[in-house]
Amino acid sequence: MKPCTSELTTRLRTAENVVAFSGAGISSESGVPTFRGTDGIWSKFKPEELANFDAFMSNPELVWEWYRHRKEIISRVQPNAAHRALARMEQIYRRFAVITQNIDNLHQRAGSRTVHELHGNIERNYCTGCGKYYSNDFILAQERAPRCPSCNSLIRPDVVWFGELLPEDAWKASVAAAETAQVFFVIGTSAVVYPAASLPSIAKRSGAYVVEINIETTEFSMKADEVLLGKAGEVLPALISQSLSHTEHERAQRYGK
Ligand code: APR
Which residues pair with 22 in a beta bridge? Predict the structure, then answer.
């Protein structure tokens, strides 16, 4: 991996407020498929048939078959070194937040506490009628598309489908984090799905040093202050050992973390 510049090392050593914006690429080393690219989910399935509300209401069995499959994959995987590196960074910095487009809960499972979920979480489900929440255990025990025992309406996964609004609180917190970050990482995302993909530009306009980490260049690469090409599970731990390990203990003490 190409070492990061001294500029980034200096900024990581002096920053107090760091934010990481992640996409499907950060979970690919855990075994969760990404969406775009050669083997991506959308090269095999049609998002218009599986990831929008009308498709769900017209064919709930198909959509649930697919989400059961995704829940099953995600239940079998573990957070990887990239997720763990971000959880460690949260211990180092006075202010640190993860903004994620992922619905796999792997940041939280790695120990990250401040996680703004822009596209929901596959471990939650709710009734389309009365809004009641249901666990995965309840859902996976149903043979057919699950229905609410209280009002008999269809239950859906708590994820954001195409054409739907992002959860307001998570969006507002993410914009605030992007506007105040001193260093803003853009990790494992093709940066093409909006409004989430506008966050790196918001951070840049607000004065953050924006660092992209990806195995290839993306639509955003030209606008980044620095691009680190490589796997997130290799780049992030190396970044910590290159830039931070000597200040880690001192900082953790300073911030009582
Ligand atoms: N490390 C770093 N980057 C990686 C790795 C890796 N190990 N593996 C893949 N990548 C990169 C790919 O090069 C690509 O740029 O991760 C990116 C994944 O892009 P997408 O599959 O488009 O996923 P994402 O950007 O998260 O998609 C955004 O689109 O389909 C919707 O709701 C879904 O949240 C998702 C949104």
Answer: 100, 187
